[in-house]
Structures are given as C-alpha cells and as structure tokens.
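Design job #97: recover the sequence.
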C-alpha cells in the first residue's frame, strides 16, 4: 500500500485528482468507480477544473458509483444520483449512457442488487475505485458486521452512519435507513483502489483499517489484502499512524 501525506484538504484533493486523471489519460475508456459524501467533492472540483482547461476528456469514460439510498431518486437533492450530477457529471463531457448508479427507487432489493452487479461485470470491471472511509471503518455502506458482504446488497444503516449523514438532511428523521451498496467483493475486484481521508475524526478509522487486524468489524481493513491500494490523507487523518511507516 502506498501512503501519500497531504498538507491539507486542498492538497489531498489535488493529489487524488492527479491519480484519477492519470488513469483517464492512460486509458481513455477506463471504468471509474466513484464515491459520494464530503470527502471527494474537492477531488471532483479539481477534475472539473482540469477538464475546463482542456487537459482531460471524459467522453469515453464509464462510471459506476458505490451506493445509493434506498427510496431516493433524481428528484431528491439528497440522493447520490443528484449529488453526482450536481458535483461532477453535469460539468464534464461524460456520456449519460456511461453513468451507472444503483436505482434507489427500485423497491425490489434483490432484483436491483442483481442488476447492478451485472452492470459492473458488463462494463468489464472497475479500473480504479475511489473510496472514502467512515468513522466506524465502513467503505461504501458496508457496515461493521459478522462477515464481509460479497456482492451488491441492501444494507440497514447503523446509527453512527445515520448520525454522520444527518447534516445533509433537514432532520435525522429524514435520513434513509437503508441503502444499496456495492459489496466488499465488488470493491476488491477493482484493479486499483484509491482511498481518501481528511480530519482527526478519521484518524482512528485509518489506524484500525490499515494498521490493525483484518476484521469485518472494520470493513476497510479488508483493503490490506488488495494488491494495489493508495491512501491519500492529511496529517490529521494520519495522526495515529506510526510516522516511520509514512
């Protein structure tokens, strides 16, 4: 695993965008696995800036997103499909037919999860998967549990995740209790993984995920078993990591 220390969030975003842009330049028809939440917003802004300068072309790129709240769709400004269009897709030249997210409006969880898993397979797998990390070590919406989930599945969100996400909603009662999420197996089949983290509230999760045992109680710890993982984090997020390892 490679670890890059960033000076601050802006530097983190630039470093992460550099890695993603290199993938697009090297393989113009690559498959990008994308994430939502506050962590990647700066990365998307940097990619948009380079696109506007003419440095990047997304016309052949395919994207697959990690997850979506069950019950929410494009009409909700809290859905992840809305988030991705507002923060990234609407500002670049990606083809609409090349954008893939779980359909949160599909009430049939089994059918939707099977459909999305087939989408990932049909696009040829993910070249590089962008991940954030939750305070409890979750990746996507793969929460701490008794076993690693294998494929795309519907998950009941933990109280800590609901609490963390309530800032995006009018009240905690509006936060969905379930989500469709790419599974651990799907994530681990990505050829490369890029994980980003910022702030002291992520320090314990980073320590436990990458310098503790591999355990389903810390879902991100499974990334220790992946052959090509890059962690980009600021000093606060790396504050509990032994300095000689960075």
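Job complete. Output follows.
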């Amino acid at each position: 695993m490679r670890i890059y220390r960033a000076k601050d969030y802006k530097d983190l975003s630039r470093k992460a965008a550099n890695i993603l842009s290199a993938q697009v330049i090297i393989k113009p028809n690559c498959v990008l696995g994308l994430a939502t939440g506050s962590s990647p917003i700066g990365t998307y802004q940097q990619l948009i800036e380079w696109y506007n300068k003419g440095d990047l072309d997304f016309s052949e790129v395919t994207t697959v997103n990690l997850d979506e709240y069950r019950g929410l769709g494009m009409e909700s400004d809290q859905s992840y499909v809305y988030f991705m269009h507002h923060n990234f897709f609407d500002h670049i030249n990606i083809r609409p037919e090349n954008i893939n997210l779980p359909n949160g409006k599909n009430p049939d969880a089994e059918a939707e999860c099977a459909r999305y898993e087939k989408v990932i397979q049909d696009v040829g797998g993910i070249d590089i998967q962008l991940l954030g990390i939750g305070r409890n070590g979750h990746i996507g919406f793969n929460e701490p549990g008794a076993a690693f989930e294998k494929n795309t599945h519907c998950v009941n969100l933990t109280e800590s995740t609901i609490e963390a996400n309530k800032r995006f909603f009018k009240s905690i009662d509006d936060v969905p209790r379930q989500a469709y999420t790419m599974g651990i197996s799907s994530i681990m089949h990505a050829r490369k993984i890029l994980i980003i983290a910022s702030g002291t509230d992520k320090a314990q999760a980073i320590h436990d995920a990458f310098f503790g045992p591999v355990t389903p109680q810390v879902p991100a710890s499974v990334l220790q078993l992946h052959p090509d993982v890059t962690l980009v984090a600021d000093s606060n997020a790396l504050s509990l990591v032994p300095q000689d390892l960075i």
